[in-house]
Structure formats: C-alpha cells, structure tokens
Amino acid sequence: MASNVRTRFAPSPTGYLHIGGARTALFSWAFARRHGGTFILRIEDTDVARSTPAAVQAILDGMSWLGLDADEGPFYQMQRMDRYKAVIREMLAAGTAYHCYASTEELDRMREEQRARGEKPRYDGRWRPEPGKVLPATPAGVEPVVRFRNPVEGSVAWDDLVKGRIEIANAELDDLVIARADGTPTYNFCVVVDDCDMGITHVIRGDDHVNNTPRQINILRALGAEVPLYAHLSMILGDDGTKLSKRHGAVSVMQYFDDGYLPEAVINYLARLGWSHGDDEIFTREQFVAWFDLDHITPSAAQFNTEKLNWLNAHYIKHSDDARLAADVASRLARRGVDPEAGPRLESVVALYKERVANLNELADAAELYCVAVHPSDELLAQHLTDAGRAALASLKARLADVAWEKPGLNQAIKDTMAEHSLKMPQVAIPLRVATLGVAQTPAIDAVLEVLGRERVLMRIGRYI
Fold first, then answer.
1. CA-CA distances (angstroms) from residue 354 to 112, 261, 331?
2. Contact (Cβ atoms closer than 8 angstroms) between residue 101 and residue 128
3. Any residues with CB less than 8 A from the CB of 192 and at least 6 apart, and which?
4. Interior angle at CA 207, CA 206 and CA 208, nearest 5
5. How far is Cα 359 from Cα 369, in angstroms, rounded to an integer?
6. Active-site residue numbers?
7. What is the pLDDT of residue 248?
8. Could you tell me how far CA 323 lies from the centroid of its own chain?
9. For residue 160, what pLDDT is reported?
10. Which phi and psi angles does 207 have, rounded to 5°?
11. Can you list the residues of the chain whose pLDDT is less than 70?
C-alpha cells in the first residue's frame, strides 16, 4: 500500500477519552504508522453546549500518555466554520442542497401522521425542489435549515474493511439537515468536509457510526470528492458481557494512569481487543505497528477482561527499568504528601517489590513504608510483638549494631538470634517485619533490612524494646 495513507481520530470533547475511543485512536495511529502514512487528530467540538475545555484537555492528555502522537492537528471544527458555510453556499448554488422552511411543529405533526399510518417517520421532501414541482410560499420571518438533496434512486454501498459489504437503499435515507436555522453546520456535514479537505483515505471508527456512513458517502459524492475506505470496529463489552460503560470501571483513559497502569500495558491490551496476531499476547509497540493490519480485526464484539489487563501490567512492571519506576513512584508519593527522599533510594525499594505488584500504586504503597514512621495495628502488635518476640528483637538489635550491612551478614544475625532463643524463622522474621515496616508480610527479610538501612532498622526496632 502506498504511503499516501491518511487516517484520523476525531473525538467529540463531550466527555473523557474512554477505552473504546482509545482503541479507535490506536488502530488509526498504527495503520498510518504501518504504511508510512499520516495520522491526524481532529477535535469535533461543534456541540457547543456539551463540549468543554476540560474534556478537550483530557483527550489530549490521554493521547499523550498513550504515546499516540499525531502528525497533523489537533484541528478544531469550531475554527473551520467559515469553510463549512462556504461549502454549503456552493451546494445551494449547485442544487445539491436546498432551504427547508418547515417548522419544528410542522415536522412533529408530519412524523405523528406517518407513525399513525404505520410508516417510518422521515422527512417527506416538502421543500425539496423537483422539476415541475410547485413549492409552498416562503413563510415570513422563518429562518430555514439547509438540507442535503439525497439521491432517491439506487443504493449506496461500500466494502467495509471489517464488516464486509454493506448496502443501503437511498429510499431509506431522507434529506439530512446539513445546516441549522442559525446557520451552524451539523455533525455529519462537518465530518464530510473535514475528511475531504484533509484527504482522509481510511476512516477507522466505531460501528456506532455505520448508520452515518451512507449519508456521508452521498455527500462526498455530491462534492465530487473521493470516498475513503471505511473500517467499523465492533463495540467493546464489559467483563460481564454487557456494553462497556462507566459502571465497568475507568471513565477516562487517564483513570488508568491514576490506577497505576503503565501506558505500554494499556496499549498492548487495547491492541488485543478485537485484533490478533496469531497467539501472540505480549508485544512491543514497534511489533504491533509492524504486524498491524485490518484483515485480522474481528467483526464480533470484543470483551474487556480486567484480569488480563492486570496480568499484562504486572508483566510490564516486572520488566521495567528501576529508575523509571522509581521516578513514577516518587511522583505518586509526593501527591500523597509523602517525601520520597525520606527513605532509602527508591530504585532499591522498587527492585525489591516490582515482581510482587500488579500496579504502580501497590508499588507506591510498599515504598511509602520505607519513607514514613510506620504504625502497626494493635492486632499485629498483640499477635507478634509478644514478650518472646520483643526479647528476640532486643538480641537482634545488639547484633545488628555492628554487622556488615549486607544480606549474608544480616541473615546470619537473624539465624544466631533464632538459635539463642530457640525460635523458628517466622518467630523472629515476622516480629521484625512488624517492627520495621508495620506489616506481617514482605519480601525476604534480609533484603528488606539491607534496603532499609542500619540507622532506620535500629531506630524502628528500638521503639518496641
């Protein structure tokens, strides 16, 4: 395929960038990258009542976090109003659009009558100019809408790159309003002009847009524009098999950042939602781009699986660079009001825990215990810091005062304390964990002590003896 591939992601900023939108963006981005083409970001903000600057920023933040960099844009439809209005004037002059003066009440009455007759409610073309047709008298003081003069014969068809051949009879489509009475153009019209002006070759989008496609194709043809290829992605279902919605968890892609996911884990997971490359489950962004095609997108709905996402996230954390993880953990601790400099080097803490956590918040939870004064629960203290436990800690503290502060020496000091008090490893290690980190379970205790450092360990043990 030639490198003139041009794709676009065109969200409406009436809400956050959600998982379905992020997958659409990823597939559009990857297809352009795969073919050396151009990926365009377009913000469809014509719904002034519902579009917000916060939602625009959330979309930009989500795209940036996922690393879906646009080659062109972001373009904003509200900044292109003059262009849309100019095209509408051209269409009125060419006879492919016309003014309609029917009032809202008139149209409501028309639809009620159609329903009463058992017909599908649709505009009846009363203001559509036809040869020999006498139009009603133009009512005084009424600002008209502009309607597209949709073909009435034949059908509109396209070979959808995901769903296969789709054909709609033109008789099923009424004359779409392309400009409201106040002159503002409508969504379906703006999309067509944008796709035409931006030279979009492949429209990859959710299948909730399938019903818009025949109308958009007819408008494109009326403009003499080349019709792009369409690929409509099936919906994503939640873990429970119902349509993915807010109640399934993350409202926004950035919620996944807040919840401690790495962007590469989310990208890898999104890539497998409705697309596959053999049995490959884990792959880099570069591999995905090299492999990605539209032939292996399934036309059936994809099902979100939180367990699989968590598994992938744990894998990517386990294989991430310690310094990178430490920087992320430091920022999370700072947002909690915890000084990340108050503990040992975060890289050493991260290295100790990164194979034991599913997300970065769990990693930050563990690191926090190294940076703050810990306060074990009364239950833990009563269960583990018994008289025998405190006596063992007192002996161990004396040994730790001058031992070589490395795992072999620390391990030997614990074993010597066990022998002195005739105790098993858990009877020393668990009280030691509770005293130093405030919890009963940690990685290997000698590794914990080594990372925590002599001064902190002796001080924390000292509180309980």
1. 64, 13, 17
2. no
3. 216, 219, 220, 223, 225
4. 90
5. 17
6. 246
7. 64
8. 25
9. 98
10. -75, 0
11. 1-3, 246-251
The two structure tokens encoding residue 152: 């009435």
* Short-list 45, 49, 50, CA closest to 73: 45
Burial 287-304 (b: 16+ CB within 10 A, else e): ebbebbebeebeeebbbb
- Name the residue with tokens 């000084």: 339
Token pair belonging to 86: 């100019």
| φ, ψ at 174 (rounded to 5°) | -90, -175
At residue 3, the pLDDT reads: 60
pTM of the model: 0.92
Q: Tokens 């953990």 identify what position? A: 329
Q: What whole-number distance in Å separates Cα of residue 381 and Cα of residue 384?
A: 5
pLDDT of residue 252: 85
**Omega before 408 cis (within 30°)?**
no
Going by C-beta distance under 8 Å and a sequence separation of 6 or more, which residues neighbour residue 244? 18, 19, 20, 235, 236, 237, 238, 304
Strand, coil or helix: what is 94? helix
What gap in Å lies between CA 388 and CA 381, rounded to an integer? 12
